[in-house]
Structure formats: structure tokens, C-alpha cells
Amino acid sequence: MADGLFQISEPGEARARAACPPGTTGAIGIDLGTTNSLVAAIEDGRPVVLLDEEGEAILPSVVHYAAPGPGLVAAAGEAGAGAGAGEVVVGKQAREVLAARAPADTIASVKRFMGRGPEDAEAKRKLTAYRFAPGQPGESVVRFVVAGGTRTVTPVEVSAEILRALRLRAEARLGAPLAGAVITVPAYFDDGQRQATRDAGRIAGLEVLRLLNEPTAAALAYGLDKAAEGTFAVFDLGGGTFDISVLKLEQGVFEVKSTGGDSALGGDDFDRAIAEHLLARLDPGGVAAGEAAGAADADSPPERARSMARWALDAARAAKEALTTLLVVEIPPPPGWMSGPGATQGQPPPPPPLRLAREEMEALVRPILARCAPAVRRALVDAELTPADLSGVILVGGATRMPLVRRFVAEIFGREPLADIDPDQVVALGAAIQADLLAGGSANPDLVLLDVVPLSLGLELMGGVVEKIIHRNSTVPCGATQTFTTYADDQTGFDLHVVQGERELVADCRSLARFKLTGIPPMPAGLARLEVTFVVDADGILRVTAREEATGLNAAVQVQPSYGLSEDEVERMLLDSFTHGEDDVRQRQLAEQRIEASRILQALRGAMAASPELLTEDDRSHIAAARVELEQAARGEHAQPIRQAIEALDRASKEFAGRRMNRAFEEGLRGRSLGQVEAEMEKSAAEGSLDQRLARAGHRGHSHG
Amino acid sequence: MSLCWSCERDTGAGLTCVRCGALTAPVVGETFFAVLGLPERYAVDLEAAEAGFKERTRLVHPDRFARADPRARQISLRRTVELNEAWRTIKHPVRRAEYLMRLQGYDLAGEGGPTGPGAAGEGRTPPVGADPGRVRLTVPPALLNDVLELREALLEARAARDAAAVHRLGAEVAERLREALAAVARGLGGDRARDSLVGEEGDLIGAVDFVAEKTEKLDTVAEKLIAIRYYQRFLEELEAGETSPAAGGGGVSADRGSP
Questions:
Q1: Which pLDDT tens digit goes with each residue over A118-149?
Q2: Quick count: other Cβ atoms within 10 Å of Cβ A273?
Q3: B59 CA to chain A: closest CA distance, Å?
Q4: Is the pTM of this model over 0.90?
């Protein structure tokens, strides 16, 4: 039996549990960011970010769908043997290599499209590197055309690829299956965006325990780390979103007092402003800018325009980041650029690099940053606080590294912000704390988190006016029931339109869902009584039910999100994801065998250190050889060799193990009456094989000395 | 007596079943005061009430039941929804007063105020006005006049870009709101003491007098609460106009507010 000896788990422990290294519940926190994503977990009572095989914490949120035929992926060299046509590549390689070579097939900042329809501003932007599928009438989801035009994918599917990569990373470290995941979302995400994020998690094969607001996650990480009490503002400026939250931390209760922000404002907008400036400088005639702007026009796919757009955006991002420490940067012009498309005659000298000073960059960024100010003021008013009441201001998000942003925050709050936890990691760390809590971990058993609804939820009345049913900043979960009646005589149905937003008119709010309740018997106006109940669960996701009281008509209402995916589509994507299933199974087996290997090696080291006197020279050399073999196999990419090496090590250590077992058994007998021993042996016979009992006795003997 | 959904025995009166420790389902008809374990009166020790709210939240919150049986999760959700709604109502002085009035048979929600059925008259699905058997109140004409004048003054000040005048109007309405709220607190505060007095003496004539006096007093409170709605609305608009001048919400709301 291969695993007789070093299987040291306690009786009754489930297999899944046993696969987890000690000190973790196997629940993960994921920061699914616009630019970068991370995964973290609690290990030995502290949240840690999980690294990939190369020791990187950050996974760039970039997904490349390779075109059929001899693909770029293989050409890119680093992809390894298996990569090629039809392959999906996530992360650094997708950003650094493939985004430049195949901009349309490489989706970055997909978070900005989550839960958005083709009519949203984001999908209509001029400066874009993507191809969009032409919207069908009634189509409610954005679709990207990728893989060289052979495939369309939705933002949910793209996000699922990122989540899947993080899941595999976590499984390699913690073992599979995971106990579940908490995924963070901007506090300002609306219902459709939350639904989309949850769907992406499901498609990626995660059990989504909770969606957690990013600023709340950040405060959680700070609050527990510093054991701080008081009221904090979290200023979170990421790649694509801006969030401001005010939280009160008191005796283990984290209460969100108010939240606000803009789900379409972030570092990407800075990049875009800088990019437009660079294009204008490069080419004052506006030819390049015009070409790049033409990229949105899907009829004539101007590949060159898309790569100009990509160059400008990448150069802008690099310049912005460099100007965090430098005062001026030089940006080389795009490869092949000859100071204007007309300059084909002769060989003009390559144009000089563009110089960009920090002050110039800040002048471009400042007007966009200023859009944060009203949301900050409103969040303070909603929390009934002034800046002086705050105990601190926490910075989150990569964009808060910019000196301009820090000055802006210091000015608006009248104090220097805190930034001692890495602003890129703080959200994932907080999510891991919450995941551990939800999975029943004991790291912070008394913690309670009270989050709020970011935007009011209501129903449309006749005339396009909104009746708010759940108000902004209500603590979740929450619910409310409102009674409505018919407007016209003999009205036999209700048209219910659920909207989200603060404005008075439906046209200014976001449409969430429409449904009908029909079959009401004709009555005079005002006699029917329609009870509509809104419930927002702890994820911030809304469920609406309606019931007509007079007739007892209990409509089975199907709430169809106006934006987002239908349940059928999610099911289809789940099925699609099983085509990747084989790969997942392989990865999972590999992860399990690696964990098995490390546990056995550790147990063996312990046993050898505890009883060196029981080892013969032969044992030592056999065990050493088998150990080296196993360590090598564990570094490989295949499960089977690891399994074989484990068996070999087991054989090599068999005699040593037998001697340890005998001694433990003898020690166990000493000092006890025969009756006790007999009773124990009977009991063990009933529970399992004697071998197993003995193995456990051996383990105990070792751990006590 | 109610049966536990989990062990099917008598649960006792608490949030958790006395026998098996499972969460108990919300009690139909329980007031928000009862949900929070508070006496039914206007005066509330908010600090103690908040501590009680948080203590109860610890017991019932869905975070505690993330991986529990679906029925337990459902009950946790319902309990927490109820608890949050109760605390949202009780912690706010105006909402608390309105809720107490509702328990007394006054339906102020949606009565007369700009968000009520007046505005929804042309609505596709207008909210139902007062429940049958409830006291309906009309908005005093003096108040309507008052508010109309304030709105006009606000529109004029905005048109003239006179920030100081806008600020003055805000301060004036805020002061009126404070006064009205103080009157509400006085009106609701007295009732309890008189109730117990009548109960002890058993004075029937006094009780009749008291009923008449109480009704008058509550009518006054109701009027003040209606005025408060108008003031709050006015201040919201003023603030909305200040934080987002481009929103254009002020004009639209002003139109709707005119009867």
C-alpha cells in the first residue's frame, strides 16, 4: 500500500480537508482588477498573496485568444510546447508580447465592459483596440471578435479566463477543491455588473462565497493589521474605477457608513488623455490620431490604426508610471513611424523621441482627477461627517501611487493619506480575510462586516418617474415592500421596470430588469393592490417579486437582466468550460500530487530526525536517492512521475518505517494492563485495520519525542 | 408558541431556538422596536440601541451562514433584512417618529409630500395611498404656500447665481426643520407618561379627555412630520444643485413639486 505509512491525517478527516496544508481553510480572496488581478489566502492566521511559479504576485488582467493557423503564441517563443492555435493566454505574456502583435485578439481592461450593453459609452469609445460584434436587435451584451475573427466572446467569458488562471494558481498552492472564493468588486458596481462578476466566477469553476466591495476589503486588511479603531475614508483609484467609502471600525464590527464613486473613471482615463496628447504631438496634422480613432469602425478593419492606438496607450501608461519618480521622460516614436505617412520618399532621419514632463502630464490628468471631488464630498455628507472627523485616509489602487493623486487626496481631506500596505495587494488581502471568515476559518471569528447598497433601487411609475424602494447606503442585506395600484379602469396587467440610480427620471437611471404581471381581473382603477418586494442579498444582488393581493395572484416573475447574460447563456458557457475540463483535471491532479509529495517529504524528514538510531546505512542511501528523485519529479509538470516517485520513496523507507512502528507499538503496550490493550485492539478492529492504527501510533510516538 | 424549522420543537422567544440553537424565523407582526429589543417609545438611547443591533447582527448575519443549509441561509437573510430595516428606521429621528405614528394609525408614508400619490397621479403604477381605516391627513394650505414661496426664492437665487442667498435659504429651512423636529419629539414624548397615569387612576372621564387630547396632539405631530418632509425635500434639492450643477435635477423636481 503506497500510502500506509506517512498518511498522517487524523481519522474522520475528509479527503478535501486533508489536502489542505495546515493553517488555511482553502478559501481564497480574489481581487479581479481592471489592470491586474491577484489571489490571496489565509496561511497561519495571516493573509498572504499567492505567487505564481515565477514568484509573481500580479496577474495582468489581459487575455489573448490566438488566431487559428500558425499562431503568434507559438511564435512568441516563451509559451512552451503546448501553446498554439486556438489557445487562450492569460497574464504577463498576453500583455507584453501579444497585445502589441494582435491588439484586437488581446482583451485588456475587460472589467470596464462587465454588465454593460453595446449602447454604453465604453463600447462606443473612439480610441480602442478591439473589434466588436455588430449588435443584433435586442442584443444586450457586448461581444468581442477575437481569435483572428473566428470567435466571439463576452466580457463574462474573458473575466472567467482570468479567474480560472487564479484558481489554478491557488489550487497548486492550497490543493483542490478550494473551499470557495470571495471576489471583490468596486463598491459602485451596479446590479448588472455584480451579476456578471458572479457568473464569471461560476464559469471559472469557483464557488463564489461572496462579492465584497473593494474599499471594504481594503479597510478590512488595514483594520486587522493595525488593530485600528475609528472612522476611515478609503480612496480607491484603480485602472478603471473610482470608489470612495467611509467606514467605521469598532470592536470587530466593520460598518460601511457611505459609499460613492464612478464606475467609469480611473487610471485608464489618464492613459487615454496622455495617449491622445502623444498622438497629437507626434503628428500635428492629426493623421495618426484620425487613424487611431477610426479603429472603432468595424467595417474597414484598419489594423494599422489599432496598433497606433495600442502603441499610444502603452506609451502613455509607461510614461505615467515613470513620471511617478522622474520629472521628465523620453518616449520613442512607434516602430516604423516616419514623421507622417506621406514621407515615403527617400530615407528621412528617424524622428526624435517625444519629451513629456511631469508637469505637462499632470496638467492632462488634473481635470479628470477633479471628477473625484463631488463623490468624496457626497460620501462625507452621507456619513454625516466632515474631513476632521476621520481617523485616517487609506489609499488603494495603482493610480494612487501618482504624486498628483496623493497631493489631491491630502488637499481634499486636509491630511496626509496612509499607504503603508501595498496599494496593489491590500484589496486581495482583505478579500482573503473575508473568505476565511465565510469558510469558517478561525483567524478572526468575531468579525462582522456591514456593507451598504451603493445606489438606490426603484420602480418606474407612469410618466417616467422613479419611485425609490431601497435607498442608497442602506445596510445589506435589506429589503422593502411597496404597494401599488392600477392607474386605468379594467387594467389587467402591470409592467414593472426596475431601475438603479439617484435621479428622478428613469431616463437618467440604469435599467436593471423589466417584467410583467398579467391576469388581473378587470376592476376599477385603484382597486388592485400590487405588492412589490425588493430584497438585496449580502452580495448586493437584487431579487424582485410581485404579488397582487386582491386576487391572490402570485406571479412567478422572471426577472431578466436588461444588461448581462441570461441563465441559458451562463449554462452554455458552463458547458463550454468543460471543454477546458480535461486541462483542469490534469492541473488539479498535478497540484494534488505536488502537495502529497511535499507532505511526505516533510513527514519523512521529521521521522528521520526523531529516530536516527533506527536508520541503517543502507536505509540512508536508498532513502536519499528516492528523495532526490521525488523532489525532481515534483518540479515537473506531470502527475504520474510524481506518483511513481512517491511509491519508490515509500518502498525505500519501508524497513525504517516498520522498525518505527514496532517500537511505537511496544511503547504503547508498556505500562498498561492487558485488558486495556485488548479493549483497544477490539476497538481498532472495529474502526479500521490494525495497520492503520499502528501507523497512527507511530506518528504520535514521533510527534511526542 | 412557534415550532423550530430545524428540530420541530418549541423554539422559545429568542433569535435562536432554545433547544437546538438554530436561528428562529422572524415573528409576523413584530414591531421594529421589538425586533431590536427596545421599548415602544420615541426616546431611545441610540448608543445602547446600536450596541444591541450589532450584537443581534453577529448572531443572524449571512456571513455566519455562508456555507450552511439553504433553509438556515434563507432565515438568516430574512432576519438580517428585518434587523437592518428596523435599525434604519429607529436610528433616524424622523423615520422613528413616522413609524410610531403609523403604529398609532396615522399613515404618513406617501401622504401629501412631493414623493407621494400627488406626484404619482399620472403614474402607471401609483403607490396606494392610505390603508383602509387609517387616518388620512390633508396638507395644510399655509404649508403649501410657504413651500412654494421658498422654492420660488431658490429658483430666483439660482437664476441670479446668488450663492449667499441660496445658502441663507438653506440655513432658514434647516432651522425650521430643527424646530419642527423638536415639536415632534415633545408631542411624542408626553404620551407615554399620560398613558400610564390614566391606567393607574382608572379615571374614565379623564381617560376620555385624554383620548381627545391625545388625538389632537398626534394630529399636530402628523402635521409637523408632513412639514418636515417638505423641508427635507427642499434641502435635498438644494444640495443636489450644489454638488452637481450640471445635473439639472432642481428644475425637474421643482416642476413636479408644484401641485
A1: 766 555 565 566 777 776 655 667 888 888 87
A2: 19
A3: 10
A4: no
